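Progress note, project year one: complex with magnesium ion.
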Amino acid sequence: GAPRYAELDLERTARRGYPEAVYCAGKTAAQVAGIAAAVRGRPDVITLFTRAQPEHAAAVLAELPDAFHDADAGLLAWPPTPPPPSGGLVVVAAAGTSDLSAAREAELTARYLGRPTELVVDVGVAGLHRILGRLDLLRRARVVVVAAGMDGALPSVVAGLIPAPVIALPTSVGYGAALGGLAPLLTMLNACAPGVAVVNIDNGYGAGHLAAQIAAD
Amino acid sequence: GAPRYAELDLERTARRGYPEAVYCAGKTAAQVAGIAAAVRGRPDVITLFTRAQPEHAAAVLAELPDAFHDADAGLLAWPPTPPPPSGGLVVVAAAGTSDLSAAREAELTARYLGRPTELVVDVGVAGLHRILGRLDLLRRARVVVVAAGMDGALPSVVAGLIPAPVIALPTSVGYGAALGGLAPLLTMLNACAPGVAVVNIDNGYGAGHLAAQIAAD
Amino acid sequence: GAPRYAELDLERTARRGYPEAVYCAGKTAAQVAGIAAAVRGRPDVITLFTRAQPEHAAAVLAELPDAFHDADAGLLAWPPTPPPPSGGLVVVAAAGTSDLSAAREAELTARYLGRPTELVVDVGVAGLHRILGRLDLLRRARVVVVAAGMDGALPSVVAGLIPAPVIALPTSVGYGAALGGLAPLLTMLNACAPGVAVVNIDNGYGAGHLAAQIAAD
Amino acid sequence: GAPRYAELDLERTARRGYPEAVYCAGKTAAQVAGIAAAVRGRPDVITLFTRAQPEHAAAVLAELPDAFHDADAGLLAWPPTPPPPSGGLVVVAAAGTSDLSAAREAELTARYLGRPTELVVDVGVAGLHRILGRLDLLRRARVVVVAAGMDGALPSVVAGLIPAPVIALPTSVGYGAALGGLAPLLTMLNACAPGVAVVNIDNGYGAGHLAAQIAAD
Amino acid sequence: GAPRYAELDLERTARRGYPEAVYCAGKTAAQVAGIAAAVRGRPDVITLFTRAQPEHAAAVLAELPDAFHDADAGLLAWPPTPPPPSGGLVVVAAAGTSDLSAAREAELTARYLGRPTELVVDVGVAGLHRILGRLDLLRRARVVVVAAGMDGALPSVVAGLIPAPVIALPTSVGYGAALGGLAPLLTMLNACAPGVAVVNIDNGYGAGHLAAQIAAD
Amino acid sequence: GAPRYAELDLERTARRGYPEAVYCAGKTAAQVAGIAAAVRGRPDVITLFTRAQPEHAAAVLAELPDAFHDADAGLLAWPPTPPPPSGGLVVVAAAGTSDLSAAREAELTARYLGRPTELVVDVGVAGLHRILGRLDLLRRARVVVVAAGMDGALPSVVAGLIPAPVIALPTSVGYGAALGGLAPLLTMLNACAPGVAVVNIDNGYGAGHLAAQIAAD
Amino acid sequence: GAPRYAELDLERTARRGYPEAVYCAGKTAAQVAGIAAAVRGRPDVITLFTRAQPEHAAAVLAELPDAFHDADAGLLAWPPTPPPPSGGLVVVAAAGTSDLSAAREAELTARYLGRPTELVVDVGVAGLHRILGRLDLLRRARVVVVAAGMDGALPSVVAGLIPAPVIALPTSVGYGAALGGLAPLLTMLNACAPGVAVVNIDNGYGAGHLAAQIAAD
Amino acid sequence: GAPRYAELDLERTARRGYPEAVYCAGKTAAQVAGIAAAVRGRPDVITLFTRAQPEHAAAVLAELPDAFHDADAGLLAWPPTPPPPSGGLVVVAAAGTSDLSAAREAELTARYLGRPTELVVDVGVAGLHRILGRLDLLRRARVVVVAAGMDGALPSVVAGLIPAPVIALPTSVGYGAALGGLAPLLTMLNACAPGVAVVNIDNGYGAGHLAAQIAAD
Ligand SMILES: Nc1ncnc2c1ncn2[C@@H]1O[C@H](COP(=O)(O)O)[C@@H](O)[C@H]1O
Ligand SMILES: Nc1ncnc2c1ncn2[C@@H]1O[C@H](COP(=O)(O)O)[C@@H](O)[C@H]1O
Ligand SMILES: Nc1ncnc2c1ncn2[C@@H]1O[C@H](COP(=O)(O)O)[C@@H](O)[C@H]1O
Ligand SMILES: Nc1ncnc2c1ncn2[C@@H]1O[C@H](COP(=O)(O)O)[C@@H](O)[C@H]1O
Ligand SMILES: [Mg+2]
Ligand SMILES: [Mg+2]
Ligand SMILES: [Mg+2]
Ligand SMILES: [Mg+2]
Ligand SMILES: [Mg+2]
Ligand SMILES: [Mg+2]
Ligand SMILES: [Mg+2]
Ligand SMILES: [Mg+2]
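Model obtained:
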């Protein structure tokens, strides 16, 4: 049964077509363990655990030893096998190496929600030839997630080049006037190319979920 | 030919599948007139004029007398007939009567970019039965645009109820701590239900463009 | 006698009907111990110690070994027994599991100030059926405290459904554009449903105190 | 019948015990007129029109010539007679003469929702003897609304003196670092005396509505 | 002689090599006229009048009828003939038509301080081929001023392509989350390509002055 | 007698030694007229009317025809003759011509509160020789008020040169990142030279009042 | 001799009448030690070391073993004996116990700069009788420093009661919407009682220095 | 070969004339090690590693044992010998000792990009004679970098004294209203002396790179 400090939204897959995810950030390891134990009886839906610190991951793995775990992305999934890919291609692009963990969280979320995915890294606008060299891949996408910190300029450039919608994922990479990610967030909200959908700073889960919905058949 | 103060992105339809739009806000009426004259030779693509004040509209209509004009939405389109609708249904919902002009700009943009659209107004969360009474329509949508000011709570509620992605369109409706639309913008970026894509405050054009891309076949 | 670094407001119960509380956050353990020693001579009024870190709690318990202590809420009370409940019912609702400690601080404060209380957890708007399933309880309340982080949308929804006033308690749960709780704070100040009273971020003590005053006979 | 740009929440009185109010600020005079015409068939509930500019007021009065109108407060009410007062006393205090219109909006709202009210003006903390001279009245109140701009210090002082809850109503009175009312808003959220409920800047309607709920029998 | 409300920095050309400019924005027309009269005796140095509204321009022209005046840029210069161009080439690029007045102010300032200049307009990143088509010109520059509003992404892209330093000139073009130019300002401060020098929002004068200094022999 | 919308703090001179001032900004002309009429019976204390727009000034002058009026500073005083100067010298320095009205308001306030005053204008740090040329005067002051907008750097420089305290008066002169005066306000709060007292943006009245108190015998 | 990473302002006492202070916060212990060694040759002026962490204090005490050290205030002074008190009385008042370290830093600074001082603690506006009970002391002061966090309301109240100027010292005491001290800072800048001089958050050194200057003979 | 998480911009020297730098802040030590290994095959270009924590530095030195390392500046360079100096002189001035690490990062970057450099420290405006004593050096510079925290006033003063452009480098030195460096950043953007180029807070690398470009022959 469900623990008394959580009321899992078990109707979500029926209602929305996508399962609930457990946000670990504000929870104790004991609470996460309790939730992991509660979902063990439901191998028919995939449960994601997001923003998992090592102690959260250990708590999940103690209850669900075969769960998939990506430590960089802070993500666990159980059962561990993603569904067979269907729908359109989700391409995830990261402006710099430092944006990789948010980009990876987005890619894994889209994959566990059933989409085929591709990832390209370190293709920021400081060296424009890098993203221009991937135009073929970008043009095959049903939707592109673009993760960037600092100036957050890459989504504007990508959106101006392709027909597919772009999900702009601002990251907290940067310092000073980057304001913990507010600077790229504002850049993206003001993208001069239309077709840019913005999510919260470092919200790879949200970007991947939205991508999966857009790329659904 | 193109005027020297503007370099129209005439390749955009070829490159992206959607035509350029002319942002009137920072331009003189004379500049807008010059651009309107320049597009007269291209009836094969639809040109949108957005954020048109009365003097901008008059300048466009002087050059393109049969242009479509919606004064509430600040939008003109030429040629005036939208393409035959194709792709999935775009539903636009406005939380209050005061959000109507942004919502209408979104609806018209999606329609002129080729999608079928529906509009529902004054269905904010202060009286929850109103949005719950439209669930059938919302569930038929390929994508839903939700315009809201003040607390900006409606997109979270809608996203939690349906499988389609939600485009959250914050408006500058409100006062004081609404901060000219920053409050609903922040609400939407922090939506507790995944599947919410955020655009700039009062950016009905961007919301409609994104909706058209998502709902494309 | 009172220590020289503190001047306890011993007249407060006479003047206001509610006792003083000791805010531990900026005090040394030694200062808190000195205050605890000073109140030992006044078992006639209940003293609350709020925002107590483990070292503060240890200092209080060393002086007042039978004090009540809830570590999650960071709260101690002495004498340990709350007054017999009087006045109307205070219901405290938390949007997510992560909002539990603020919600619990509010509930305990209201109870130690003499009110009957109920707590419901994890009933956020992402799964609307959860709060709608508690309407009976909510309608029995004289006042409802609603704790929420992220989008902070739950108070607007609750206020729109019931006659009682709602105390909106924003929490620092969330990341990025949640701005440490400023996002839900702004949402609540802009609630589109009237009847929402806002307190400071994570201020469970203030929410519970206000609830006790509103629900007084 | 209801106009198509508005969906009046006619169930609100049944659901909440208080009628809907029409927020005029973002509406055209024609829209407000349409709504006024629609409520004419419902003399059984009092409808408030808030934030009415002169053109809004004229539109309402053209449809409902006997409506009550207070131009300073920007408020209209129809039918024009408030209900017989019941419940506890609502006292409204304004720190300065410049806070009068927000304070008056609060007082009128509470009165039209059925409560007895009193108003005191220009009793800010720069001359403390003024508010101290009204302690008798303040102590008779079931709830006190305190309107203040600039430093917003008055609610803290009042809350520290009386048992009743205080509704703090920040106003946009001030300049420079008053930040359009954000400075007193922050002051009030951080009140060092517990028992302070904060509403949006200049939100006299919200303060009065909340006061009426708190002071209900 | 100098009027008593102004103390012209007549030593500036000797000290810095560039003459003083008169900032008209906060001055009355009478004050500007007095200053214009005072400089009439100094035809040996060029005086610029910046941010001149029509009434300021009229006041200057009444005293100095042959002064150069560009109304779009809000700039006057007397004596009216710029010095013969020396030093390296200053290229000014504007992302959109709406950025033209700030860009023009920068270009004219650099020219009146003695540099050869070129201006290109409407070459924003939404249509990347436009700026890429000007690479030859950009590579010939000793310094490039790039004016942009909204996302402010163009300076990052330009800086990544050329050896010369880039002066990023944010403009107040945009709405909502553009925050009156703060969004492009932040973008530019966080440019992922090094070699970007930022000036204040809409500060075409400052950008042009800095460009003239950098491009000096 | 006092009008019912205002409660003049007539005890202030007895309590504090300085008379009340009437802040006109948020008041109607009729309210200001009523207050002017009320003070006519008290020629024994000087009443200041601050932030007076032309309609406020006309209202005061209708009641008190011989009142002193400085339109630039937005200030009126009645009776019109300042007290004979006593106490130390108050020097007011303005960084630019555009800061003159705030500086003048400060100087007049200090003079009407009884101090000898001197004013120097247009001595900002861009031409450092100007302020260095006034060191003799500055060193004779008991307190110096320094008004500056934009970078707000002048108070730091002055404070580092003299023994007297400096009152830093930030002005709203500037644009873009000057943020309506917040930039110089922050500069002044962070002055690297100790001995700087900061007041609100454009608050010439407050600066002058404080100067009068500091320079009192 | 002076170390090469620091250029002590040895002329300051001659120029300003008050000695330099060493700001330890951004310096290594080795740098602070080097400066301490350099001042050992100057026992004729008192050197203050502010914001000293334990490692800074140890470094100073290793070079100057008889230095005065107050760990709570983070302050050291050498030579250790303050000058004989002269000038007017400086009273320092702290709103809460948690404001004590900033208040103590102010008091010690004023004392080491030569003034007589008094300190009162925990006299915030939540219990107004506490500050009213000290009016006699406050009225004897030449200047009063008032330290407060949270709502920052105490300086307005004190300034309204006495003739002396008030130095408002905002502290970072509080949480959430206290914004690290910005909330009380804004309150103080907007004080409705004139005569309030504001310094930076937690800047006890600056407050004490300013107080010493104001209270100088 | 290049690791798959990074795509080094090896064309940068050819395209821009300056080599790529590796931003270590968001990277794991393993990633930095992989990049260091990849550049070992390219001794023909100098690679800089910026913002290197001790673990990053160890990782680089394990791969490139003879790399230059300055721990205060967080910078490594390989090959370790800077190019022979060419172009104009770059002078770097730091307002306080605490600004030294940012100033040093700027100086080293300019030197490794090929320029002659000089550094002066602790010459802030609180003791103006210090910077005035270096005017000869400042006047010999082709460009001056000025690092300052707190009030950020030094760049305005320097720019007003010399013909060369000034690069203003705000630092995060300060507390409270310094806002982590936002206060000096704003000061610099609003410099009242023209000729000031601003970079991000603590961005010594960016300041040094820009200086090298400006001072290039
Ligand atoms: N990383 C994430 N960011 C934002 N929302 C999330 C994240 N992970 C899960 N969620 C959502 O947050 C809700 C879970 O919150 P809780 O009830 O506190 O576990 C779920 O409805 C998820 O869809
Ligand atoms: N002045 C006001 N401030 C905040 N909310 C208001 C105000 N006046 C009316 N409302 C609420 O806003 C809603 C009306 O919005 P609308 O549908 O746009 O007329 C109603 O539900 C009212 O309860
Ligand atoms: N706690 C403090 N806050 C602000 N300024 C200070 C403080 N302590 C010292 N100062 C000033 O900062 C300067 C010292 O900075 P520095 O040269 O970095 O040691 C001196 O001129 C002091 O007057
Ligand atoms: N300290 C720094 N601050 C800002 N940008 C930097 C810094 N160091 C390197 N960069 C730039 O950031 C890019 C490297 O980012 P990355 O691909 O994540 O290594 C390079 O193009 C550098 O020019
Ligand atoms: Mg890279
Ligand atoms: Mg409505
Ligand atoms: Mg949950
Ligand atoms: Mg008054
Ligand atoms: Mg364009
Ligand atoms: Mg000047
Ligand atoms: Mg206390
Ligand atoms: Mg120093």
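Residues 90-214 of chain B form a domain with the Rossmann fold fold (CATH 3.40.50.1970).
The pocket of adenosine monophosphate (ligand 3) is lined by residues F 192, 194; G 9, 20-23, 50-51, 203, 205-206; H 96-98, 122, 126 (CB under 6 Å).
No further modelling is planned for this target in the current period.
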